[in-house]
Amino acid sequence: MSTQQRNQEKKKKPTTTQNEVNHKQTKELPHLPENIESMKILTKKSTSKLTKGGKSLTLTKNPIKVLKYFSLYLVDSLITLIINISNNAFKISLILGFSATFIAVLNTFFLENGSKVDELKHSLIWFGYWIALGVASSIGLGTGLHTFVLFLGPHIAHTTITAYTCGNMDFDIRGEESFECKSTIQSDINIWIIFVKVAWESFFWGLGTSLGELPPYFVARAAAAAGSDDEDFDSIEKILSTPKEKRSFNESVQVYMYNLMHNFGFFGILLCASIPNPLFDLA
Length: 283
Hints:
Elements: H1 3-28, H2 36-55, H3 63-87, H4 89-112, H5 114-139, H6 147-166, H7 191-197, H8 199-226, H9 231-240, H10 249-264, H11 266-274, H12 276-282
Helix pairs in contact: 5-6, 5-8, 8-11, 10-11
């Protein structure tokens, strides 16, 4: 055997050995998904398991673990806040400067217009009160608290009775002298005049009901972004896959509401929360 042939055999041997090693390593690797879709399915299954495990994690059953995660979340949020502040120091300085200037201007205005400021303060408290009642009616606080029946409805009724008793609309509906006739001059009373009298209270109450609908909306949105399963969403997807002619009336209404929320977002929630809630409360 010539020297050249021996060298060629030596070169071939490492190649064969390397192939065997690569083959063994390939066998030792875990099974990988064949395509992207199967990888998505595996990810969804893992997320679903994690979500199911998270549902059993409550403060009463696992107080130490919940407090631990809560503390870690607070620390992480604090670090993120510090980083954001350091990265946006110039913008924050501008905002603080404008805020200080605005407060100084307001302070000057308050000193020069004391009576107007008091009136503004009372108005903010009054309308904030109706917003809070609207929120309470929307979320219920677990008590079935319907503030339209308990507060706004009687307020509108009281305004209507006072209007017909006085024969005019010259009376206040808030303050110490509320619902007291100020004039004996008779005037025409109709539903439009009464509506204008209670319009702002009704509007801010309706605004409160829509604001009360937002927290569950954002919670559901965050859950969807996190990849957790939603039975209601799965249900609407099933309905959407059904042909229109085979949908029941209830399913058609659900599809209509789904499209309304999807297309109009917050304004759709505002509309649906402000209008049906009084009717629901009366029922």
